[in-house]
Amino acid sequence: MQPETLFLIEPDPKIRAMIVKHLNHCGHGVGVADNYARGAPRISAAHRLVLLSESIPNESCIDTVRALKREHPEAAIYVLTDGRTRLSTIELINDQIVKYQSKPLDLQVMADNIGRILDEGAADGAAIRFAPLARPAPVVASKPEIMSRPPRCMTDLVGDSTVIQRIREQAAEVANTDMTVLIRGESGVGKGVVARMIHEQSQRHRQDNLVTINCPAIPESLMESELFGHESGAFTGAATTKPGRIEMAHGGTAFLDEIAEIPTTMQVKLLEVIERKELHHLGGKHPIRVDARFIAATNADLEQMIAAGRFRTDLFYRINEFTISIPPLRDHMEDLPLLVDHFLRLYAKKLGVEDRRLDADVLAAMMHYGWPGNVRELEMVIHRFVLSGNNETVLAAMNQQPGAALPARDSKHSLLYKKEVQMVLSILLQSHWNQRQAAKVLGISYSALRRRIEKYGLKKHSMYHVNTQDDGDSVELRISAKL
Fold it and tell me: Please, which pLDDT band fits residue 104 given cuts at 50, 70 and 90?
């Protein structure tokens, strides 16, 4: 029998037996108890790591962690969370003393993480810095040379939820193929991060060989030249021959961000390039071979656009050989603590300031906010907080008080709806109704802004008054004609 180096506190006997069996198989001796009261007298200095369930009846996870750190300061703590007791997780992160993994558990990920903690000497008497626990990429048997180096981008997609783990698996699964990939999701969810993950795990990975084409930023009159290049003299001002963005991705990956913004006239030519692997410069006579892998992203409803005749069916099926859908942040809020910690460390390092720490009530408020701008909005909020060090900047950005209920996703009477209306309207007014400039400030595409303007019934030559009822649960948007 192996000597006990781990101790597990888990109330569910089936989960307890499953964990012990796997850890024993990995060479770890494990002591067990169904709660801390019964387990505390049995935990000794020999136990280098304590696995603690967050959902023990009649016991506070926070109090148990603090008791463990007080009685056994040398032991590392690994919390098994069910994703529901979010405030506990937030406070644990705020104290920076634990690592955690969400249920349902991947036992191999758990064993790998525990081995890493022990090997790195994590239990050295100091506080253990909270960090996301990355899921290892599945081995691609046909490409062993690629797996000889660790993926360089896996930790960029921060999160431990089931959906985020699945996205990592999908990215690894499709990386070493030449299939076109369509990444779908709202603005700000991280579509560009997933595109880079796919590229960096592929054989096409080479420095500066992922070419991002921001489709909404290209004027329609310049679209053909920017995508496919042009010959000298092709149009007024074309003094020299210039390669297009797709041609620059030869040997690598062309990432078409917000592909729905490409005009239908250009969609036919793009389809030909993807299918034939060759293109023609504007004004050119001879085809140019292009060996590029295509990844596209959109926040638009392409099926609806096809029905309206604004997106080609054949192009849709050509770019949609493999689909990855990224959920909005509000649908995997269990990952928010990890994201907060990630951005706190990232911007503290970038700005050269000491580590910042958010108050527990502010973190709780963040867990109950709808995040209409998704991860991009969260990143901006944390960036401002790290710069100022003032917790009030976070509450001001969310425009709510701690403890407010999570707003409904689509209700016109929700705080989320109010926040979106106010944000869009404010930027439109500040930009004197320059919609392209406003879209850039909001971090969304021009067409996405147009859809929001239509959704909210906003008009340029109107006066607006937003009135929130006293209970703060509903909002009324009054629009009156400008005199």
Answer: low
Q: Are 234 and 283 in contact (CB under 8 A)?
A: yes
- Residues linked to residue 184 through DSSP beta bridges, in sequence order: 298, 325
pTM score: 0.56
- Give the integer Cα–Cα distance in Å for 423 and 402: 20
* Residue 429, phi then psi, degrees to nearest 5: -65, -40
How far apart CA 73 and CA 50 sit, in angstroms, is 11
Q: Is 77 exposed, middle or buried (0-12, 13-18, 19+ CB in 10 A)?
A: buried
219-226 average pLDDT score: 88
Cis preceding-peptide flag for 372 (omega within 30 of 0):
no
Radius of gyration of the chain (CA): 26
Name the DSSP letter for residue 380: H
Question: Is residue 17 over pLDDT 70?
Answer: yes
The per-residue pLDDT for 208 is 63
Distance separating alpha carbons of residues 254 and 132, to the nearest angstrom: 29
Which stretches does DSSP call E strand in 258-408?
278-279, 288-289, 293-298, 322-325
227, 246 contact by CB (below 8 A):
yes
Per-residue pLDDT tens digits for 281-295 = 888 888 899 999 999
User: Are 333 and 86 a contacting pair, CB within 8 Å?
Assistant: yes
Tokens of 333: 């809020």
- How many whole angstroms separate alpha carbon 11 and alpha carbon 28? 20
End-to-end CA distance of the chain: 86
Assign 196 to helix, strand or coil.
Answer: helix
Give residues with Cβ within 8 angstroms of 322, minimum separation 6. Answer: 170, 174, 177, 179, 180, 181, 182
Which among 87, 298, 51 has a CA at the least distance from the CA of 183?
298
Instruction: Extract long-range pairs of 229-233: CB within 8 Å, 24+ residues apart.
Output: 229/279, 229/281, 229/282, 229/284, 229/288, 230/281, 230/282, 230/283, 230/284, 231/281, 231/282, 231/283, 231/284, 232/283, 233/283
What letter would DSSP give residue 354? P
The span from the CA of 100 to the CA of 87, in Å, is 14
